């Protein structure tokens, strides 16, 4: 279960629930992002994705863009019957902290507004991808090991958006940003 504020949102089990979870969590995240002064987005004072590290708001948005683009890359490769290196070429599942650092570096030249635009674009592409897939393709066939495509998308979109929103809300309280 994904805890959202005072309500509990079940893990999406079909195409419509996945679309709703992504849209709902992303819209809540966007609302939090919209209230952040741009001059505070590059300061690394947010708990990082690796133990005992700090990241900036820009790093957090870079992380979300990076995972979204990976989901799109995986799908394109799978659709073209190409081999997919999960989670990413040169990285293993137990090296997600290193992968997060890669995402920060990939987008370090982009400012907050550009990163938010890239995230919007990535979300649009993911929602378009979901729209093109049947419920069977998303939830009734294993796609990666035991996981369905729908779960792989949810793990890397709706869930991290909810997590990021929580991090930002905590950061805003600590920095007296309303």
Structure description:
The longest helix has 23 residues. The chain contains seven helices and six strands, in the order ββαββααααββαα. Strands 1-2 form a two-stranded antiparallel sheet. A hairpin with a 6-residue loop joins strand 3 and strand 4. The protein is globular. The N terminus is likely disordered. The protein is mainly α and 178 residues long. Helix 1 runs parallel beside helix 7 and helix 2 runs parallel beside helix 4.
Largest sheet: number of strands, sense, barrel closure: 2 strands, antiparallel
Order of strands, main sheet, comes to: 1-2
Stretches with pLDDT under 50, minimum 5 residues: 1-7
| Fraction of residues in helix | 55-70%
Q: Tell me the distance between the termini.
A: 28 Å
Order of helices and strands: EEHEEHHHHEEHH
Work out the helix count. Answer: 7
What is the overall silhouette?
globular
Number-wise, the strands total: 6
Q: Gyration radius, to the nearest Å? A: 16 Å
Mean pLDDT score: 92
Strand content: 5-15%
């Amino acid at each position: 279960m994904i805890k959202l504020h005072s309500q509990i949102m079940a893990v999406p089990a079909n195409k419509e629930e996945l679309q709703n979870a992504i849209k709902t969590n992303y819209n809540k995240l966007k609302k939090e992002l919209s209230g952040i002064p741009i001059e505070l987005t590059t300061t690394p004072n947010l708990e990082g994705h690796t133990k005992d590290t700090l990241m900036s708001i820009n790093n957090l948005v870079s992380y979300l863009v990076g995972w979204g683009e990976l989901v799109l890359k995986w799908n394109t490769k799978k659709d073209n019957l190409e081999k997919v290196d999960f989670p990413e070429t040169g990285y293993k599942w137990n090296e997600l902290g290193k992968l997060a650092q890669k995402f920060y570096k990939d987008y370090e030249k982009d400012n907050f507004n550009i990163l938010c635009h890239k995230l919007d674009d990535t979300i649009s592409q993911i929602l378009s991808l979901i729209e093109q897939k049947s419920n069977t393709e998303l939830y009734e066939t294993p796609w990666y090991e035991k996981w369905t495509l729908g779960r792989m998308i949810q793990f890397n979109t709706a869930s991290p958006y909810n997590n990021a929103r929580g991090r930002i809300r905590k950061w805003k309280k600590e920095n007296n940003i309303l």
